[in-house]
């Protein structure tokens, strides 16, 4: 079946345990796998999709194709919906807030106070993670009993 072929390309052994609503890109589809899936869809379902559309496909959409519920041209337009698609869409909701996107790209200050404590304690200086801001370290700093400064 088409679903098993695509799952095999992705390295999914048991399709019944796979998240059917996740896009192939979220399931780990790389560029080589994308070409294989694209060729499989063209050969088996007579469906021509762009690389972006292949990445946005879900296992659910491929299952619907496999069951023959819609013609390939109709399925191509319905399976790959824009991010404003309704909740029953076959794509995951891309309107969900993603916390790392709200962090500033360039910190406003080089050193930020994450926790203030008594002056008699030895201060702890934490270097920021790769994102460049010490904000993710704030929760850790609050659990310490000394002054904590974040280096950004």
UniProtKB/TrEMBL annotation:
GO terms for biological process: monocarboxylic acid metabolic process. It catalyses: acetyl-CoA + n malonyl-CoA + 2n NADPH + 2n H(+) = a long-chain fatty acid + (n+1) CoA + n CO2 + 2n NADP(+). Keywords: Phosphopantetheine, Phosphoprotein, Transferase. It is an enzyme of class 2 (transferase). One of its GO terms (molecular function) is phosphopantetheine binding. Transmembrane segments: none annotated. Residues 1-73 form the Carrier domain. Its EC number is 2.3.1.85. It comes from the Eukaryota. Pfam families: PP-binding (PF00550). Signal peptide: none annotated. Residues 65-94 are annotated as: Disordered. The keyword Thylakoid does not apply. This is Fatty acid synthase.
């Amino acid at each position: 079946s088409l679903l098993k072929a695509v799952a095999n390309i992705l390295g999914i052994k048991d399709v019944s345990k796979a998240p059917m609503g996740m896009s192939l890109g979220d399931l780990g589809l790389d560029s080589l796998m994308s070409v294989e899936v694209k060729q499989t869809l063209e050969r088996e379902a007579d469906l021509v999709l762009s690389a972006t559309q292949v990445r946005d496909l879900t296992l659910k959409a491929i299952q619907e194709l496999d069951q023959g519920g819609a013609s390939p041209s109709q399925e191509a337009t319905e399976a790959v919906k824009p991010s404003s698609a309704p909740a029953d869409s076959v794509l995951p909701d891309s309107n969900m807030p993603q916390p790392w996107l709200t962090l500033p790209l360039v910190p406003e200050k080089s050193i930020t106070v994450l926790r203030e404590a008594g002056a008699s304690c030895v201060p702890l200086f934490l270097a920021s993670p790769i994102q460049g801001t010490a904000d993710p370290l704030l929760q850790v700093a609050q659990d310490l009993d000394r002054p904590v400064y974040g280096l950004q």
